[in-house]
Amino acid sequence: MASSTDITGDSPDWIGRGRIPSLDGLRAIAVVLVVLAHAHQSKGFPDVQALHLIGSVGAIGVEVFFVLSGFLITTLMLRELDRTGGLSLRAFYWRRVLRIAPAYVTLMLAVAVLQWAGAAELRPRDWLAAATFTMNFLPHPAWELGHAWSLSIEEHFYFLWPLAVAVTPKRWHVAQLVACIAVCGAGRWVVLLFFPEWSAMSELWTFTRLDTIAIGCLLALVAQQKTWRDRLDGVAAWWVAVLLVLVASLAVSTVSAKWSVGVAYTLNAVCIALLVWAAARRGPQWLNGRVISAVGIGSYSLYLWQQLFLNHHRESWVTAFPQNAVFAALAALGSYWIVEVPFLRLKDRGHARPVGGSDRHSTASFSTETASVPPQAASVAE
Prior knowledge:
Elements: H1 23-39, H2 49-56, H3 60-84, H4 89-116, H5 124-131, H6 143-146, H7 148-167, H8 173-194, H9 206-222, H10 226-236, H11 239-253, H12 257-282, H13 290-297, H14 299-309, H15 323-348
Helix pairs in contact: 1-2, 1-3, 1-13, 1-14, 3-7, 3-9, 3-12, 4-7, 4-14, 4-15, 7-9, 8-9, 8-12, 9-12, 10-12, 11-12, 14-15
C-alpha cells in the first residue's frame, strides 16, 4: 500500500461524497476467505497444506465484512446528515429491505424446495430463526441457513445504530460506540470466566459481537476530523506491521479459545479497520481492478449461496470440490443478476450517489449500501 512518506493528513474527497476506493476489492477478499473456510472441508479439496491453513482461519472474512459494513453505513449516514441536517430512518430501513430481503428470501425458498425433495433437514425452529433474523441465538442450526447468524447481527446493527444516530446528539456518538465495544468485550469475558459452556455461542450473540461492526463505525466517525485522520494515516503507513499483528492473532486463536473469544475479536477488528483505512487512502491499484471489484460486488449473493454447495455434511457429487465451488459461483451469478439487480435499481432510484465499496454492499455477512458500480450492477449486503 503506501509508505510512511506518501500518506498525508489531507482530507480525501470521498469523506463527503463519491466512491470509496478499494472497498469492493476488500469485500472480494473477505468472501473468498469465507468460501475457503468451507471449501477446504469438502471432499476432493486439494491436499495443499497452505490452502487448508488459510481455510482454517477463513472465518476472518466475516469480521472483514462486519468492519466494512460499519464503516460504509456510518459514512453514508454522516453524508446524509451533512447534506440534509437529518437522517430519514424510513428511507434507510426501506433501502435495507430492498438490499437484503430479495436474495435472502430467494435462498430460503430454494432451501424449502430442497427440504421438500428430501435433500435438506430443517426443524421449525430453524425456519423461525431464519425468518426473524435470530439465527445467531440458535444453538446448532441447520447447515443450509446457519450462516444467516452473521446476517442477523448485521440486521440488528442496521436497526439500532441508525436509530441512535437519528435520535441522539452528534457529540454522543463516539461515546456510544466506545461503550458498545467495551460492553461486548466484557460480556465475552464474563461468559469465558463464569459460563464457559456458552463460550461458543458468545461468538454469535449480538450483544457480544456487535463490537466488530462498532469499530468500523468508529473509524468512519473519527475520520471526519483532521487530527484523527493524521493519526490514522500515521498508523496505516505501517500497514505491513498491522497485517502481521492480525496474522499472529489468528495463529494464536487456533490454539487458545480464551485468546480467540476474549481478545482476538477486538484486536482483529482494530487491525482490519486500520487496513481498511490504509486501502481506502492509498490502496494498491489491483484492489480496484475489474475482476476483483466484480467479485466484491457479488459477494452478498456468493456468501448466501455458497453454503448450499460447500456442505461437508452431505457427500454427493454436487458437494464435492471443485464442482461445488463452480455451482456456488453460478448460483451467485443468477441470484445477483436475476434477483438483486432489479431491486438495486429500485433502491437506487433517486439515490444515484456513488459510494465505493458499494452502498449496495453492506452485509457480512454479508450486506452494505450503493454504488461502486454502474446503474445496471450492484455487494455481502450493504
